[in-house]
Structures are given as C-alpha cells and as structure tokens.
Amino acid sequence: MPRASIRVWPAFLILTVLAVYLFWNWKQESSYRQSLVLATGSAILIASIALLLWWTFASRLSWKARTIGLGLVAIALVAFSVLFELRGVSGDLIPVFVPRWSEPVALDRYAPPEGQPIDQPAFPQFRGPDRNGTVQDTGWITDWSSHPPQILWRRSIGRGWSGFAIAKGLAVTQDQLEDRERVIAVDLSDGHEVWVHANDRTFESVLGGDGPRATPIIHGEAVYTFGATGRLDALRLADGELLWTVDVQAETGAAVPEWGFSSSPLVDDGRVIVVAGAASRNAMLVAYSVETGEQIWSGGTDRASYCSPRIAELASRRQILMLNASSVTGHDPETGAELWTTSFPSRSPHVAMPVPIGDDRVLVSSGYNVGSKLYRLSSSDGELAAELLWESRHLRSKFSNVIVIGGFAYGLNDGILTCLDLADGSRKWRGERLGHGQLLLAGDHLLVQSESGEIVLVEPGPDALKVVSRFQALEGKVWNPPALAGPLLLVRSDSEAVLYELRADEAR
Fold first, then answer.
1. What is the pTM of this model?
2. pLDDT (tens digit per residue) in 192-202
3. Phi, psi (degrees; rounded to nearest 5) at 185
4. What φ, ψ does residue 128 adopt, rounded to 5°?
5. Residues 6+ apart with CB under 8 A from 217
C-alpha cells in the first residue's frame, strides 16, 4: 500500500495565521513597543510548538524522518546554548545573545600628542555639573565627517550600567568583576587604572544585566558611590581610601529593588542624599553627613522607583524633586519632609528625573505607555500644591532623561527622538528610532547616545529633526550615561570604556 503524501496544509495554516497576527500586532500604534515585542515572542513560541506538534503527529512522514527532524531541532537548540549566552534584553525587551568565545576588550592606550596634555575639565556627577544634562559651550568641531572624533584611549571594564564622573584628572565609575562590586578610578589622560575599591557584593539580573547602576558623584576631595545592593561608600578621590561606609539597605530595611538600587547619589549642603525606598519607615529618601556618614534625616512615604534626586527651586521653595513608584514629590532639603505630592501612574518602573520649567512648572515623563505630564506648583498659606496642566502620550521616556530648550521638550519617545510643545503637549516632530539611549545638551546642540552606541549630534528646533553629525562610539548594548567634559566624550558599556576627543588636530 503506497505511503500517503506529506500533509503540509496544517503547517501552511500555522505560518499564515502567524504572519497575519504579526502584521496586525505591529499595526497597533496605540501600544508601546515593549508590549508588541512580548506579544511577538509569545506568538512565535506558540507557532513553534504548533509546528513541532504537526511535525510529530500530523505530518504523515515516516517515524524515522520525524525522529531525525526532532533530533536536529534538539541539536540546534543545544548548540546555540553552548555557543551563545543571554546577556539581558534591549530596552524593548528583545533578548541579547553574545558569543561565549568573545574576548574581553584589551586595554589600548593612546598618549595625547606630545606637548599637548589633555585639559582637566569636569563632569563630576550624573548628568553633568548641574545635574540637568547640560554642559556649556564645548568648543569642539561639529563636522565629524571632515574631522572625525579621535580615540585617546580605550580599555576593558567590568559589567554594570554606571556612568563616569570626571574631576581633577580622574574618571570614576562603578563595575562588577567576577564576585566583587568595584569603584574604579582611571587617569583621564591615558585610561590606566589609578585605584580600585572593591566590596564583596554582587548584583545579578538575567534580564536587566549584572553590576551596579548608579553613577558616582565627586565632591571636594571625596567621591560617593551607591552600589546596586544598597551600600553607600565615601572614598578619598586621590587614592580610593575608604572614609566611611553605610549599608543603606540594612539600615533602612528597604528591599533591594527588582533592577537593583539605581539612583545616583546627590550632594547638597553637607549632605549626601540617596534613594533608599523604605516607604514603611518614612525613608524613601535618606541624607547622610558627607564627613561622617551619620544619618541626618529620612523622608518620603511612597515606594521608590529608579529616578535620581535633583535640586530645584519652584514656587519660591528650594526642594528635592522625585518621581517615585506612584507619585511625584518635592522634599525639603533640610529635613526630607514632603512639601507636596501628586499621584502618578504606578504600573511600571519610573526612571527619568522630573524637569523644572520656569518658576513654577515641572515636566514628568515615563515609558510603558504612560507618557508625559506637566504640572504647575502654587503656594497657599505656605502649603504647596500641584495642578495638572496637560498630559500627553507623545513623549514616553523609559530610560533617558528629557531635555527642555525654550518652549520645547526633546526626548526618546519609546526609543524615537521626539520634540514636544510645552504649551499643550502636542508633538512637533517624530524623528528616527535610536533606542533607549541618553541625551545631553552640549552648547547649542543635542548630543544623543543611542542604545546601540552611536553618537548623534542634533541641532534642536521645533520644525524638524536636523542631524548635524554622527559616529559609532561603542558596539553592543549601551545603557550607561555618557560624560562630556569640554571636548572630551567618555562613553562606556558593560564591557569597555572609550575616551574620544571631539576636536580636530588643527583646532588643538
């Protein structure tokens, strides 16, 4: 009796349904990109299982052919797991696999041209000198096609998403190497290691990546660092000697967040302020003496998210602005007490810092389909209150911080560079997709670091996206914030750090 021919229509039907669903899924502009990626992954997994079931039970192939086919699939899966490792996900939750045979980046030093030592500019904390993502006129050439940025040095570095703080000829960051969380200081001129302070702590996350997240802050002769598990260290800048240490997580009883303690410390008037997140103990924020590490105050009744604190003066009150798990708050820097609070959607992590605008407004943005909200603060009988002026889903900043120039806000809307009109929250333009990267305002230009490590220089304006120059600074996934000190651009990933000079030889 002749064998029945292979039954292909079920496989064709499965693939057709999958294709139709994926087309429909990605036409849903109202959904945020991460949900589309998750839905795509689920659909592909279900279709793959259905195809395996068809192959095994309904294909009409000989059992020998079916067995060989299943064996080849199993071999391919095992070979892939042996050859590649999962290194977390992108900002859109796409898995990132890297070859297991990849070698660490070797340290290659490039000495500055003879007789032309590198200047000693400063970028002493997260998002720059004033913690607002703005640096003054850089003095560098913006035509990178004719005058490409020059590599001064590059070196390997451990895992983590911390950025660099730069002052007094040193660049300081945090990383994780093997079983230790480290603070590492390198010479800005050639990248060689000056000192290392290590703690026997680690933070690991399959999706979020391993290592510390917060950027150090250099203040005076000390550097203050906040590790992913909640340890606050004060170190002497010159040699890394430990001045004092506090286990903030243990002291406050706060739980280690899902993605680790990520907020960069803030120094203000003799206090180093960190986000602890112990809402039950009125210790969402905690301030310690910069000299001794003794606790000065704690305050805040909401759970923490991943936003870093910043100082602003709004409605004639100096305050610490915070975006928390379910609220936006202003805190008295002297006591930590809440000056005002307003609710904010709590279904997702919040990362971007609130942006003060003028004397009485504050812009707040978050990803995961939340969007942006503009509030006006007012004072009555000494009490502050926030009024919602508008809300818009045209700017949903997931990881990066928003830059405000004049009456317009610039940010990465679910990974796409976007300009928003602050008058009413309407979108002026929607540019290219750069992923979940970082932004700085450098003189008259926006410097955008894409999630893939490309540096894009943009001339800001409400009429259209105007790209001036661009170059590939790093390879792989880059969530680390860049540091820009004068003409020096210091960028890093979770494996390497590179110092560029954004200035041509003849301009030196």
1. 0.90
2. 999 999 999 99
3. -115, 130
4. 100, -175
5. 124, 125, 126, 165, 223, 224, 264, 265, 266, 267, 272
